[in-house]
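PROTOCOL LOG
Step 1. Enter all chains and additional molecules of the complex.
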Amino acid sequence: MTGSKIRSGMTRLVPYAFILPPMIYLMVFMFWPLARQMYMSLTNTRIINPNRGRFIGLGNYERLFDDPAFYLSLKATLVYAVLAVVFGVSLGVISALAIDRPFKGRAVVRAILLFGWAVPNVAASLIWLWMYNDRSGVFNRITEFLGLGRFPWLTSTELALGSILAVTVWQVAPFVMLVVLAALQSVPHEVREAARIDGADGLSTFRAVTLPHIRPAIQLASLLVCVWSIRRFDIIYLLTGGGPVGTTSTLVVKIRQIAFEGHELGMASAYGAVGLVLALAIAALHYVVEQRRMKWMSR
Amino acid sequence: MPFKKLTLKLSRYLLIGMLVVLAGFPVYWMATTALSLNSELYGSGQVIWPQLQNFPQLWHELGQVPIGLWLFNTLLIAAGGTVLSLTLGSLAGYALSRFRFHGKGLVGFLLFMTQVVPEALILVPLYAMFITSGLLNSLTGLVLANVGFSLPVACFVLKGAMDAVPYEIEESAIIDNCPRFSVLTMIILPLIMPSIAAAAVVAFFAGWNEFLFASTFLMDRENWPASVGLASFVGQYETPMSAVMGAALVFSIPAIVFFLLIQRKIVAGLTAGAVKG
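Step 2. Run joint prediction.
Step 3. Record the structure below.
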């Protein structure tokens, strides 16, 4: 009797035996550091002695909100993320629609279109740095050949963010394409054929038949591209280092600079807290949209 | 009508051609640059065709760069992260797929959250933690930091695969009092080998590509993975550009090959995490 009771008690513990090791791991290496980061933002911790900082309340935040560099960084982050979504998702959707129907050599085309997504970030940075090279880069060779002269792709305040966006779009559009291609498989071909036979032109067929099927995929891809843009460090750091005059210094680039070049860990953590709020806000937005869609679908 | 159809077809092929050039050119240019001479790159102008006859010279130049050592370190980091992510990820995936328990919703939320947290946010606290625990400047510390981000992805991929395995398959084993851990390792995991392979590739190349943690935590040149080593070429002009591009190409090819092989699975894994949260 008691034996089986103990057994059933044990059985109830079984799921925890599976879930605890990974969760403890994440607590130690993800959530404890995150909490610690929030606390550090309230201290004057410096890199010489990272485990001993004095509690200074909201001092870092006061300085942060008074600093024009912070607003510049916030603006760079938001502009970069929004434009990455707009251009990356559009190009991804266009690519998906272009290669959706079978044609000769489709497998090869599809593979080549995925290159930007597959190349490691650091390698991508190196090749784009070389292509953007002031004197010998291919872009300036072309513009010089066309008689337009050279452009300071990465060192002008007007061009730098756009140049980084080009690399970003090259990297994320293939992913969007894959997500949309998967969704396109759920569009019944007969329906599209029927619409075309009824005399609907390409655009209205797309709007009435195709778009409703791929809209969830586009939403999801947009969320992921947005989140990745806020997280992205290596490309920006290697191409411009946050310059010129801070026009490309997104929050994550700023965190690393303040911490390991300015040696102010407390201040870097305050930037981190803002980044966390931003990331969570986007995740929450996604959650709300998702919930509303489910409600709408069940109605 | 046939004329309109023809132009439509033509413009579609034109669009595809443009997309192929846009997407493929940087990689093509990486190869072409690797096979160029420095005098061309900085002087007379780069030849736009790959000059295969320059391969012996590239091979010689690559010998001057410690790319072998860097790739070896990269391999250790990537493999260590893969083993740890898959082990912990399959435990979490099995728990989420097969059991109801208190806090399941919270676990799902926390796993989802790891996907929106920028790595840079925990850079500073991890640095402080690694100083005290002696993990700074070690590959072990780097792997431990990386796995926090690759474990949840592995978990999502594996949970999705386990959900598709019918419960009846493990039921008889459970009735026979087979321990649940053995059910997982002897019955479930062998059935989802393709997904395990996909999760392994994702985790492996997360470690292969990682740069932020590696460049912050590893000071000794002997410990550098290829990502940090290659980045050290930025703003440094002693190494010929052809060697830089050659090394970048060697570093990229495995990633390209494996990403192309399991593209669909990767997409399924990454999107599942964002939806189920």
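Step 4. Note key features.
Chain B has two domains: 2-37+51-61, 66-276.
Chain B touches chain A through 96 residues (CB under 8 Å).
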